[in-house]
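User: Show me a protein chain along with its predicted structure.
Assistant: Here is one chain, sequence first, then C-alpha cells.
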Amino acid sequence: MHIKLIQKILGLLLMLFSIALLPPIIIAYLYHDGGLNAFLAVTFTLFALGLLLWYPVHNYQQELKVRDGFFIVVMFWSVLGFMGAVPFVLDPAITLSATNAIFESFSGLTTTGATVLMGLDHLPHSFLWYRQQLQWMGGLGIIVLAVAILPMLGIGGMQLYKAEAPGPVKDAKLAPRISETAKALWYIYLGLTVACALAYKWGGMSWFDAWAHSLSTIAIGGFSTHDASIGYFNSPTIDTIAIIFMFLAGINFALHFSAWRHLSLSPYRLDPEARAYAAILIIATLITSSYLYLHHIYPDWHDALRYGAFQTVSIATTTGFATADFAHWPAFVPVFLIMLSFIGASAGSTGGGMKVIRVLLIVKQGTREVQQLLHPNALLTVRLNGKAVPPKIINAVWGFFSLYIIVLVSLTLILMAFGLDQVTAFSAVAAMLNNLGPGLGKVAANFQSLSDPVKWILTFTMLLGRLEIFTLLVLFTPAFWRR
C-alpha cells in the first residue's frame, strides 16, 4: 500500500468533514443552546489533525490502487465515527459515556438509527441537528462526495468509489468520469432532501423539524428530533409524505438520474429490481395492514392501513421511523417486518439490508436449480431483464449471502453468551447488520440498557452492515497485507 497517499487522502477528508460541522455551529449560535464550544473544539481539532496529516505529503503523487481504496474507506469511517462522538462527550447537556457517544456517532454515520439517548425533545437544537446531519452525510457516503472533489486535487477516485459501493452493480456509471458520477448522485440526493423538507413543512412541521427529518428520511436513517419519532406529529399527511420519500430513497439513485435526464418513468418501469422492490412493499403492506385489522389492533381499516403501511415501508427500507410501538403488535407482525429488513432497499440507494437485487438473483438461481433437476441436460441461465447474468456475479451474490448469514448467526450467539435473550440478541444484530435501528425485546425502545461490551460489538456490526461486510472483513485477511 501507498502509506503517504493514504495519509494525504485521509488528511483531506478529515478537513472536509470539519467544514461540514459549520451548520451545527451556526444553529448553536442562533439558538444559544450551549453546544457552540463543543462543536468549535471538534471542528478545529479535526481540521488541525487533517492538516497535520496532509501538509507533509501534499506534493506526493501516486496512482490509487484498489487495496488503498479499501483501507482508506474503512479508516475514514472509523476515524469519523470516533471523532464524531466527541461533541456528545464534551457537552454537559448530553452527558454520554465514551462508549455511548461512540455508539451514537457510528449509528448516525452508518444510518443505522439505533440510539442510547432519551429525552430528545429537551436536547439542544444543535445536537439534534448534528445527529440528523451525521445520517445525511453517511447516507450516500461522504466518500462519494470526496470522489467528486479529489480529481481536482490530482487524485483519482475510482478505487474509493468501488470500495464505498460494493455489490453486483458497483461498476455502473451514470457519467463517463467517476467525478461526474459522484456529482450526479449528490445533485439527486440534495434535490430529494430539499423536496422532502418542503413537503414536511407543507404537512405541518416547523422549519427546523422539516429540515431535520428530511436529512434522516432521504438518508434512510431514522433519527428524529422527538422521542416519539414521526408519531410525535400524529398527522396522516406527514405519515404519507414520509412513506413517499422513504420509498424514493430506497430506489437505486441511478434510476432517478436516468428518469430525470430522459424526463421519463420508463427507467423505473423497465428495471427488474425497481419492480421487485415496489411489489415487495405493496404485498408486505397488505399483509401487515390486513393482519392488524383482522386481529382488531385497529378496528378501522383506514387506521390499520395508515399504521401498517408506514411501519412496513419504514422497516422494509431500513429507515426505522415509528408512528406506533410495533414491537407490541401481535408477534407475527414485528418478526415479519424484521425479516423484511434483511431484503432491504435497492442497490445504489441509501438503504441497508442485503439489497433487493441480490435477493432477486438468489431466487432466480434457486428456481434455475429446481429446473435443472427436472432437465439435467438443459443449458439454463439466470436472466435479468432478458439478459444472462454472468456466473461470477451469481457466485459473488451467493458468497455475500453465505457470509451475511454466518455473521448474523455468529454475532447472535456471541450476544447470547453475554446474557441477552434470543429475541433481543437476534433482533439487535439484525437491526445493526441491516442498518435498521429498532429491534425487539430489550432493544425495542433504545439500546441504553445494554452493557458496554455488547455496544462495542454492535458498533462493529453497524460498520459491517454499512460497508456491506466485504469492504471491512477484507482487511482481516492475510492476503490483504501481503506485498
